[in-house]
Amino acid sequence: MATELERVLQHLRASVEAGPKVYTVEFLATEAHTSRQIAEQALEFLADRGELLRGEQLRCPCGEVLRTDDPGPCPNCGGADDEAQPVRERTYRNDKPRTRDVRWVLLLHGMNTTGAWQEEVNWKLGRLYGYSVPLAIYKYGVVRPGAVLRFRQRALTRELAQKMRSLTGEAEGSGFGGKPDVIAHSLGTWLFAEALRTDPSLRVGRVVLLGCIVRPDFDWEALRKTGQVEEVLCHYSRKDFWARIAHYIIPGSGPAGVRGFNDRANIAHKMESALAHSDYFIPQHLGRNIEDVWKPFLTGRSTPRDEVDAKPWRQSWWLWRATLWRFLILGLVLGLAGCLCFLLWRGVTTLL
Amino acid sequence: MSDKPRTAKLVELVQSVVKAQGNIYIRELLREKGIPRGANKEEFERNLLEAARTGQLTLAGVEDWLARTEAWGNQHIYAYRVSKRLLNLRDWTSEADLRKSLPPSQAKLWKAGEKLTFPDTLALAEIAPEAGGGIRYVWREGATMWQRDRTQDDTKTVDGDLYEMRAYRQQRDRTVHRFVLRADLGLACVFLQGEFETAAHTRFLKEVERALAAIAPFSDLDPLNLSTVIRNVDQGELDQTQVQVKAQKTRLSDAGAYVEFATTTADGRYMDSEPVRHIRRAATQEKGMTGANGTFEYGTRTPTGLARPVRFDLFAGERRIKLRAQMQAADVWSLLQFLDANGGKRVATAGGG
Q1: B262 CA: distance to closest CA in chain A (Å)
Q2: Cβ of B272 and A98 within 8 Å?
Q3: Which of A4, A92, B39, B260 has the fewest Cβ atoms within 10 Å of its own Cβ atom?
Q4: Across the interface, which of A19, A174, A178 has its CB nearest the CB of B285?
């Protein structure tokens, strides 16, 4: 008996996690395939512990459920059978907030790939929900030199904003609703943040930032207050080399992917200690990340809040920022490429 | 009118009010007039009669209050959008214009103001202008009802056989049906009290159509598309674009088949359930599904400001709205405006707006 009760309690606890519910003894007995007595014991046990609230409702013989504070003839049958009285039944409800539905998802890749990981995420997310969740994969190509040049950054930001508007319109038109959730990686995080900052008409739901190269002092709270963003999760790693150095090369960027954002109160953070910049997507981590971190956040079941007390980030001395460095690096790369071409040309002409 | 008949009328009105109105509204009348309240109908009646005796409660005051509360809610509604042609046909705010438009047989009912006559058969009793522009037709009927009263049950032996006698007490009830055209809202509605009977409703709607032929022909009234309303209101809650109305039951149908989403609890919403909500989402993309009927909860407030959700049903096939609880006139119109806003675009056809 005790084992059966434990089984039903375990079942009930798991069920209670999925948003607000109102149980009756009959329902739990059916759902958990147990006796009324065990079901009642389980419900009473959780009610005694304050995990469920006791209540009552009236059930008319016709099946209609009536409020106890709204007596009177049944609005369904009008109390057609004068002799049959409504039956009082006990209810148990939890006060969990309603979970959140993912409507559609926008995936944004980083600068070093065209997002091979997106195909894996697409397949895994597509199977995750009990209904169809369209995934839009925005590909802007490989933009290694473009990322360091302001005019290219602006063009890429504009293109992304335009694409987001067009996708939103299409999603609304086909009944999927307006606001997408966003999963962005690396340069995708920066372009996305810039698109929101420069275009106040853009509206998104929840946002997962991975290998984020946005400045840690970026004002997400302002975007939340204006309704442009619902919630933000920064999934970051102490071992993310590229997030650490991005702001020395890419103008306007920052190392949020390695230390999180300054605003720990309003932005959800999940720290990893061993993942490199793109390790979030490799097969041994992707499934766990989706199931344990991103899905609970996107569906509103839980929001990670890590305990690390990070010092607020400040940008480095102007000379070390992406001011001269990016041109030096760009010059160096172009110089090396030029030398290589020259040597190749000399080699070819010598041979001929 | 001399004081004596006026007082007699007031007493009669008070007694009928106590019998017919919900406690929540009688309490509001007492509160509004500064009369001590009470715990039950007996105390309400005693306090009201005392206030009538001292002059604290007047006939005009009760009549004004009745106009705002009586026959609002707890009724069936057929809602129509008024065509632009009809709205532009006359000045709906001009009493003179409205009165002039009435056929001679109805002219004598203009602002008849008699609120206590309840004939045995349904009869048109009053035609009056609406405050914001529009017109109101009121039908009244006194009805005999039988109320189950277990206290008078009895058993009797007749010729050796035991008989059980179940008692019903006869009581007079009053029924008010209305047609109201609100030009300011572009809406016209037929309000019917009592249980739903297809034949009785059809008969009454024909009667309304006949009575309104001169002033608001039904060809200029486009029935509100409740199928669209059901889908939009339900979808609005799913998408969290509207929070005023909560779905308790929604039936979406295709020809000959349907799916129904419903809660089995009095206070719950079916959308609280994540798996049920996910299945409902799948129906979002199914454009072939039609809103067939639904039960919803509309958030109103009591006169003292407490939340008071009121349930209502929408029947798309019958184009009927059923309000399950007594409401204030303002709340009813606010709900109707909400439904109109969710009824899709107004189409500029002969009958449409």
Answers
A1: 11
A2: yes
A3: B39
A4: A174
